[in-house]
Design brief:
Layout lengths: L12 H9 L5 E2 L6 E4 L1 H23 L4 H22 L2 E2 L7
Antiparallel strand pairs: 1-2, 2-3
The structure holds zinc ion.
The site of zinc ion has 8 residues, from loops.
Length: 99
């Protein structure tokens, strides 16, 4: 789960989800109001997961799996990804370059 790198505040699951889904680079801590960033490692993990999801869905298309199955499956991936974000991602107190 997310922990603030400035004050050590532990995010609740709900706060972490809200943070994971918000756009923008920095995420403000609800406790000390300082900005946290996702680590480069966790952003790479996120991209990897998105890539795998897209790959699986295109494989299904290749094997003539109907879209009525492939699309709900893609949504299931996205929802699973969203719900797993607070566990996949880690915070940093500074913005890390991706590569
Ligand atoms: Zn904090």
């Amino acid at each position: 789960m997310f922990q603030c790198k400035h004050c050590g505040y532990e995010y609740t699951y709900k706060e972490a989800l809200g943070m994971a889904s918000s756009t923008g680079v920095g995420k403000r801590c609800p406790n000390c109001a300082k900005t946290n960033y996702f680590t480069a490692r966790s952003r790479k993990k996120g991209m990897f997961y998105a890539f795998i999801s897209a790959f699986v869905v295109s494989i299904l298309g290749f094997f003539d799996v109907p879209l009525t199955i492939a699309i709900p499956l893609l949504f299931a991936f996205l929802i699973g990804y969203y719900l797993a974000m607070p566990f996949l991602f880690e915070l940093s107190d500074h913005e890390e370059p991706l590569w």
